[in-house]
Write a structure and sequence with these properties.
six-stranded parallel β-sheet, globular, alpha/beta, 584 residues
């Protein structure tokens, strides 16, 4: 196997190992390469209808695995990939929700924005101020951090979910675990389908997620195997319940079956200079050594705590021009990283306004509603994306998922014979003179359904989801302030190869030639919630976040702790103290 031959000794051992295995992997040690090779290696052994599941922490990580499979011309029929929430939704909740009393007569998924809107409405109605809360649940379906401060808020939130039959992200996990725990046949059936479960970023896995995986392995009587990989130095989701369990604790979750331990060592991504920088923030493990072809290259490593927040957009713009025009670095190999979405989105919008010619891949530039459970959110991607050769495979997958979602929600049209290629042909043939984004999409939707002989007005679910889609788009449109034209809606679809704008939490597992980090200020990184938390060590979180951000870079690392940002009380923010210690 070509992929196997490209691995080093440690990576090959992981791929060829035939039992439960916990792998600790430092940044740049070839974790994704090893996961993909393991997928192919085990996939070649499968019988008909059996699969390997790769459970990733983010959709971006799942897409990266898919891209690597495609790049190696590998058929992915044996493979399922996605987040634990996607896995639970597709394989457990949707097929068996009728066995849950609360869901028997229908339910609706809500995303994080919907949940926040409900929470904010409760706060306004009850005149509640700022409250620290989490909607995370335990194995009994109870909130994990219910206390005197948030008791009223969370109990009212729970009541509203039950009345409206809403299912948020945390209930997806709880109901899925409940179904597996109380219905052995479901767990047994899934364990006969999935012969390997590959779990990425185990250090950020929630307790319920461990329990869900454990139910599948126990039901298989140890025939379903587990590969679980991650890095305790990157456990940055403790506030969301992430737990870096020991191998003994994982063994307890999977029924006492033995789990072996292996390490992937050596960084094949970064120069030694960059490794030496982020090693200052390393908490666990031995010294990391650069082993890639670029290990001895001279890196551009800078720290700036002088530039003001008012000049920051222009400063980063000039830096992007210099990296691209003078150093020859493609825009797509540059990432701008910040601790939170708000300053990141504001920065992307500011740069887009002063330098519209620089391609950007950034959340917040398009008003498009991104709701995984909304039919029109998926259909809009097909109308907004360009039918370029390098997008064909991705668009076919979007089309396939879109139609599968429709059939689930409207079984009455299951008899319509239409494949992904026909769906794309319809979308590609749409033309209109309409220039306003939301009007363009509404015309496109009517056009599509007319071509498949479906009257939107005849189906309440379509009418409701179209109304919700339009409402969310218009809210985002007003919020981002870049206009209402279709060209704004196509941001993120029409162009490829732009500078990536991403948070320090979401960038984990990704890599870029050059990383520009900004807003590296105490109170942003770590956040005030971490600093004032009684459950979390803010110094540990600070180091882990800096470790993650710095270790994304291959050749250049530019870190900024800008001046001029103030708290709500007017107190100036200071540079992250651990970052300042390294460069002062």
């Amino acid at each position: 196997m070509k992929l196997l031959n490209s691995l080093n000794t440690e990576q090959k051992e992981v791929v060829e190992f035939n039992d439960h295995i916990l792998v600790t992997a430092c940044p740049g040690s070839g974790k994704t390469r090893t996961l993909v090779a393991k997928l192919v290696y085990e996939g070649n052994k499968l019988k008909k209808n059996q699969k390997v599941a790769a459970i990733t922490y983010t959709n971006l990580a799942a897409e990266e695995i898919e891209h690597r499979l495609e790049a190696n011309c590998i058929d992915d029929q044996f493979y399922w990939g996605g987040t634990i929430h996607s896995f639970c939704t597709q394989w457990i909740l949707k097929p068996f929700s009728h066995l849950i009393e609360e869901l028997r007569y229908g339910y609706s998924f809500i995303d994080e924005e919907d949940a926040e809107e409900i929470i904010d409405s409760i706060k306004d109605t009850m005149s509640l101020g700022w409250i620290n809360y989490s909607t995370r649940r335990n194995a009994n379906g109870e909130f994990t951090n219910l206390n005197e401060e948030n008791d009223v808020l969370l109990r009212e939130y729970d009541r509203k979910l039950k009345i409206e039959r809403f299912v948020d992200f945390d209930l997806i996990l709880y109901y899925s675990y409940k179904l597996l725990r109380d219905n052995f046949s479901i767990a047994k059936n899934l364990s006969t389908i999935f012969k390997w479960l590959l779990v990425d970023e185990y250090q950020d896995t929630q307790e319920l997620q461990y329990q869900i995986i454990g139910e599948l392995i126990k039901a298989s009587r140890n025939q379903t195997k587990l590969l679980i990989v991650g890095d305790p130095n990157q456990s940055i989701y403790q506030t969301l319940g992430g737990v870096a369990k020991t191998h003994q604790e994982i063994e307890e979750c999977i029924g006492g079956y033995h789990i072996h331990e292996k390490n992937l060592i050596g960084n094949y991504r970064s120069t030694q200079q960059i490794v030496d920088i982020y090693s200052n923030f390393q908490i666990y493990g031995e010294r990391i050594e650069a082993k890639g072809d670029n290990k001895d290259h001279i890196s551009q490593i800078t720290y700036n705590n002088i530039v003001s927040v008012g000049d920051l957009a222009n400063f980063i713009k000039e830096m992007l021009y210099d990296l691209h025009n003078n150093k020859g670095i493609p825009f797509k190999d540059i990432a701008v990283i910040a601790p939170q979405w708000i300053p990141l989105i504001n920065m992307a919008r500011a740069i887009k306004q002063i330098a519209p010619e620089i391609p950007l891949d950034a959340v917040g530039l398009s008003p498009l509603c991104r709701d995984e459970n909304n039919i029109f959110s998926h259909l809009s991607k097909l109308f907004l994306s360009t039918p370029a050769p390098d997008k064909v495979i991705q668009r076919i997958k979007w089309a396939k998922y879109f139609w599968e979602l429709i059939i689930v929600k409207i079984p009455e049209i299951a008899n319509i014979e239409i494949g992904p290629q026909k769906i794309l042909k319809i979308c590609n043939s749409f033309t209109t003179s309409t220039v306003l984004g939301i009007d363009y999409l509404k015309e496109a939707f009517v056009y599509f359904f007319s071509k498949v002989n479906v009257n939107i007005n005849m189906f309440q679910v379509l009418m409701l989801e179209l109304e919700q889609f339009e409402k969310k788009c218009l809210i985002k449109q007003r919020r981002i302030g870049l206009g209402d034209s279709i060209s704004v809606y196509k941001n993120g679809f029409a162009k490829t190869g732009g500078v990536t704008f991403i948070t320090s939490h979401k960038c984990k597992g990704l890599e870029y030639d050059t990383v520009i980090g900004f807003c590296l200020l105490w109170g942003y990184l770590p956040h005030w919630n971490n600093i004032f938390s009684h459950e979390i060590d803010e110094n540990e979180i600070s180091k882990k976040l800096l470790y993650v951000v710095s270790s994304r870079a291959r050749n250049n690392l530019i870190l900024i702790a800008e001046s001029g940002r103030n708290t709500n009380r007017g107190t100036p923010y200071n540079a992250n103290r651990h970052l300042a210690q390294v460069f002062n």
